[in-house]
Write a structure and sequence with these properties.
It contains 10 helices and 14 strands. It is α/β, with parallel strands linked by helices. It folds into 2 domains: 139 residues, D-Maltodextrin-Binding Protein, domain 2 (3-Layer(aba) Sandwich); 113 residues, D-Maltodextrin-Binding Protein, domain 2. β7, α6 and β8 form a beta-alpha-beta unit.
């Protein structure tokens, strides 16, 4: 288990009629895309200035983030695999899941476009074409939210790419940035979340080949960890963070974060 921090019970800070706990810290088990995109670097100082709560982010693939949270190594879960998130809550590890924000996935590839999928908006047809031509495809292969989504898209396309593992289908077992670097190095197509792709600095001649399919939507959710399962949870501070993210202030902050003048995440928490 991660070393837990000491939490001080300090004087309350009142902002806009809301009482916030100060001088506390929480651990957020998070998907890598929100960290790699720079979103936390933008959001967390705003949150800490308002509340006095320090947020420590553990950025791993969604599958690993969920395992860590089940091991009571965190106070809040922020990932992007809705089915897995709902199971996390249903089994009692989370108190409540709330939609937070969304963007989408894209398939990127080299300018040569060996599978001739550039400009396609039907991801299932594009994946079938990549498989048929045996064009190289680099997968994270790490049980992350992106990997889960990729495998679901292959399945919906009627294809099991793992049958060609080590041939045209290459599994890196790595995060998004490392997989993009590996894919670009071998001239392979890669599926990535748009936020990471926009923020990625080693694009070389790569460009977005496939985008715009509704099935490539990428929804993020936020879940406080349940203290019934994990008594060490900093309940008040965790709930404060989750509430702030879905509040009008948090949602506006998410919407205002841009890279290269492009909005990376689109807030969609339910309005109270």
């Amino acid at each position: 288990m991660l070393a837990r921090r000491l939490t001080a019970t300090a004087a309350a800070l009142i902002i806009g009629g809301t009482v916030w706990a100060q001088d506390q810290s929480i651990i957020v088990q998070s998907t890598t895309s929100t960290a790699n995109s720079g979103l936390y670097d933008y959001l967390l100082p705003i949150f800490q200035d308002e509340t006095g709560i320090q947020v420590n982010v553990v950025a791993v693939g969604t599958g690993q983030a969920i395992k860590n949270a089940k091991n009571c190594d965190g106070d809040v879960l922020l990932v992007h695999s809705k089915r897995s998130e709902e199971q996390f809550v249903a089994t009692g590890f989370g108190t409540e899941r709330t939609d937070l924000m969304y963007n989408d996935f894209v398939v990127v590839g080299p300018a040569a476009d060996p599978a001739s999928v550039g400009g396609m908006t039907d991801v299932h047809a594009a994946l079938a074409q990549i498989a048929e031509k045996g064009a190289l495809f680099a997968s994270r292969g790490d049980d992350s939210g992106t990997h889960k989504k990729e495998m679901a898209l292959w399945a919906d396309s009627g294809i099991d790419p793992t049958a060609a593992s080590g041939e045209w289908y290459r599994e890196t077992g790595s995060g998004m940035g490392a997989t993009l670097n590996a894919g670009i190095g071998m001239g392979a197509y890669v599926m990535a979340d748009r936020a990471t792709w926009i923020s990625f600095g080693n694009k070389q001649d790569y460009q977005i080949a496939v985008q715009g399919d509704d099935d490539m939507s990428n929804q993020y959710g936020v879940i406080p960890v349940n203290p019934v399962k994990c008594p060490t949870v900093n309940v008040d501070a965790a709930q404060t963070f989750a509430d702030w993210l879905v509040s009008s202030v948090g949602q506006e902050a998410i919407a205002s974060y841009k890279v290269a003048d492009q909005q990376l995440f689109f807030p969609n928490a339910p309005k109270n």
